[in-house]
Amino acid sequence: MTRGNQRDMDRAKAQKKLAQQNKGKKTDGISHNKRAENDAEIMRAKQAAKEAAKAAGAAAAPPQKK
């Protein structure tokens, strides 16, 4: 073999690169559409909570004089 361990080193390098690419991806078995629906529901809940807090803050604050 004239290549020595180059093939093994290239294979290890490719595995490391693939692992780095897949590092942050979620693979919990949920389809893309289901995940999008779940994320949208979470964002709607956050938005409703923020609007409620904003309304409560505006009602509690005394009017400012100009």
TrEMBL record:
Where does the source fall among the domains of life? Answer: Eukaryota
Basic and acidic residues: which segments have biased composition?
1-13, 25-37
UniProt-recorded name of the protein: Small EDRK-rich factor-like N-terminal domain-containing protein
* Domain Small EDRK-rich factor-like N-terminal positions: 1-37
Q: Which residues form the signal peptide?
A: none
The region called Disordered is annotated at 1-37
Similarity remark: Belongs to the SERF family.
